[in-house]
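User: Hey, quick favor. My workstation is busy. Could you predict this chain's structure for me?
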Amino acid sequence: MVKINRWLKLVNRRDRWGLTLQGWLFSLAIVGTVGWGGLSQVHGFFAMNQPLSNPDLLIVEGWITDHNTKDAIQEFRSRLSYKAIITTGTQLPRGYYLAEYKTFAELSRASLVKMGIPEQQVIAISAPGVPRDRSYTSAVALAQWLKSPDRSSALGFENIKSANILSESVHARRSWTLFKKAIAGQIELGVISVPTQEYDNDRWWSQSEGFKRVLFEAIGWFYVTFFNKTE
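Assistant: No problem, here it is.
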């Protein structure tokens, strides 16, 4: 009978280690600290600054604000190696039939010239209007222009080896990724992020616009990088 009971024994008792209330609180404090530290670095990760020191060109995304256009001019004048500014952008989404300038690239070029950059130093590379993949479409248009025979005559010099792309805030990393995909090694590409005025860049998580922008860019960059999507 004893042997049968031992054979039918389905449970046993074992000592185990477990966290106390203080242990759980301490663990949560550590996780919270690490999480907050990572969260504070998210904005800087996407609003990246990795410029080349002696680039030939400054590429400006045409959709940036007038305030950021001033930042672009300051950047252009700060490096003697720049030969020209290239503005990129697709068709304007609104007012196309009334506007003098039909694309963000043309509008940005006109703004730069009006603000003091010589006409011969600003070249607009327009891309067709598309409902999505606008940044990548602009990058492809630039890549095609870099391959074209009239490129050197437009610039006044032949060899283009490097460029910095200037974008707004947290869009910088995604733009840099997409332009590198499109250009595919034709030239070396650095990136410059200029701050937005739509939210406090240092306290982005405390404002709805900042939180939405960071979240949107995080999702966009994730798909561009890991699923080879373009946007």
